[in-house]
Design a protein that fits this description.
Elements: H1 16-29, H2 32-45, H3 50-57, H4 61-67, H5 76-85
Length: 95
């Protein structure tokens, strides 16, 4: 029987360009859980301290934790706080 080797996916997200590609793909997918998982993975890759990140977002740690979970459905202000905390500048274009 073959052995499964654990892989830390955040290792692939140390590069900011990889993070942008992940977010673009997540938003193209359109599934909110995929989008929030992408933000959570980027936060892990950036070694963001959750208490500090929550403070930067203006929310409690539990609210941030819930927002970054697969079941998360953050308010717009929480999402904007997450984006700012991660140092991301969103851009938009016509479809």
């Amino acid at each position: 029987m073959s052995k499964m080797i654990p892989v830390d996916s955040t290792e692939f997200l140390k590069d900011r360009n990889e993070q942008v590609m992940l977010l673009n793909d997540a938003f193209a997918d359109g599934d909110p859980s995929v989008i929030m998982r992408a933000f959570a993975l980027i936060a892990l890759a950036e070694n963001k301290n959750k208490p500090q990140m929550a403070e930067e977002c203006g929310v409690s740690r539990s609210t941030l934790h819930k927002a970054l979970s697969i079941e998360g459905n953050p308010t717009l202000s929480t999402l904007i706080g997450i984006i700012k905390s991660l140092g991301i500048k969103p851009t938009f274009e016509l479809a």
